[in-house]
UniProtKB/TrEMBL annotation:
Predominant cellular place of this UniProt entry's protein: secreted
Pfam short name (any one): Trefoil
Gene: LOC111927639
Keywords noted in UniProt: Disulfide bond, Secreted
CC annotations in GO: extracellular space
Protein name: Trefoil factor 1-like
Lineage: superkingdom: Eukaryota
Region feature (Disordered): 1-25
Domain annotation P-type: ranges: 60-105, 111-154
CDD domains xref list: Trefoil
BP term (GO), one: maintenance of gastrointestinal epithelium
Amino acid sequence: MEQCYQTSLGKHKERIKPAASRESSTSPLARAMDLKVLCALSVTLLVALSTLAEGIAPPTKCQCKVVPRERTNCGYPGISAAECRKIGCCFNASVPSVPWCYNPKPKKVRKVCPNDPYTRINCGHPGIKPRECTRKGCCFRAHPAGVPWCFYHRVVEEGNVPQEMSPVSL
Ligand SMILES: *[C@@H]1O[C@H](CO)[C@@H](O)[C@H](O)[C@H]1NC(C)=O
């Protein structure tokens, strides 16, 4: 039995033997492609799940500023822009040869020192020197009495710094 896979060539229909097609579909390359697709699917699933767990937050414009050659696929082939954003990914169809639906960059975070002295979490030991404290990456403020002077910073999302925090100055 012979199979035709192209019918639009008129007189010169190309024919391939089924054995040949079976062989090509199990070539190492084909297997690698299958694996790749599986990998991509499971990564997509994981991303989708973690997005669900976080409560879907659409990526910011800033997070979607990824140069085309560094875009990694998110979603499934042919996903719509709306569907893509819905699962927390970025959509940009301006460069045809790279994924249109791609993973956003991680959110930028910054370290801040809490301003309320009574929420301080001790990071040092009594009598710690400012230098020693800041070398540990902690905040140092030598007031008031009765609370730690060397204390842990918090990590907050960039552009979302609460009022009661101030940037860590090291
Ligand atoms: C899409 O990507 C191109 C190439 O990086 C960029 O110049 C363009 O601003 C992007 N468009 C949007 C809407 O972000």
